[in-house]
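does this look right to u?? tryptophan version
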Amino acid sequence: MATEVFNPWEVKGDIDYDKLIKEFGVSPLKELPDVFNKELGYKRKIIFAHRDIQRVLEAIKNKKKFVMMTGLMPTGKCHIGHLMIVKQMVFFQKLGAKVYIAVADLEAYNARGQSLEDSKKIAQDYILNYLAMGLDPKKCDIYFQSQRSNDAEKSNAYYRLQNLLAKHATFNEFKAVYGEITPGKMLSSLLQASDMLHPQLKEFEGSCPVIVPVGIDQDPHLRLARDISQRIKDPKFTQLSSIYTLFMPGLGGGKMSASDPNSYIAPTDTPEEVKRKINKYAFSGGQPTIEEHRKLGGNPDIDVCFSYLKMFFEEDDKKLEQIYKDYKKGLMLTGELKQYTIDKINEFLKVHQKKREEAKKIVDKFIYKA
Ligand code: TRP
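got this back:
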């Protein structure tokens, strides 16, 4: 088996979520308000853990101001795995959140050596997908780390905060949280802390609950930001909240790898590409022959198509359950499950791609001028 690597800049090998929950000290999600239980991500435990979600739930209940803040590193192609977090942003926006999105071009430069120019180009594709998912552009602030704002007061406040935060962290903390650390990575994590905390500055929203939806690999950044934020007396930061989304498996069963187009479905794939990728690469929980499959049944729990349906494409619980049972009993064949999934994905992409075209009319507003 591949050696396990797990840090904010690299994830390799199997992910043991139970172990991570314990090690990182995040809490499993329980007893959420009804609106949450109707949402696919919560009822199916795709959002599987949190820190301090309570204060956000209070804000929702009392109709108080709160922010959802997240970021994207524009290295590699935007794939359907990335869209899961966007669904959360749309969901929280409807519950009253103002959404902040950082395009982590400085992080991409420091951690991956990617130029700001390349990040700008790639980010455009991400932002198109984000808008196509239904984010309300009026209630979101999308910015690049290298160009926070044309409003100098806002921009100063963001970079000032990054610098002030440095005073409250120790070198040993960085090492404990990240393992290997370079000056560039250190600056990136302080900038990410500023990403997460700056919405609470007086130049932005003022002190308020901020919820950060991420993959669990980003939790080290959150731990650091949470710890140092509480050491600062002025301004007083409301402690950060966070929710953690499972990784969507790559077609082959491992992680989606942005450098291998056959490991993911991209929002811009054509119906033929989707068909080819699923038929050729989607790891199947079926038996080697139809006879064996009919007799022994398949294993939906390890089947990549089934997990795509469960995590994203099949909203209908009854339908999903039926597929689960039929596949397990051998009533549904692998070819049939694949075809069903292909149809579902293409149905989604047809609408998504149309919305992407519409988003092209407004995307420029979110991209800084050189
Ligand atoms: N580090 C994140 C990634 O690798 C991107 C990011 C930058 C981010 N700032 C953030 C995520 C703030 C959440 C909150 O994808």
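The domain at 261-357 is CATH 1.10.240.10 (Tyrosyl-Transfer RNA Synthetase). idk if thats expected tbh
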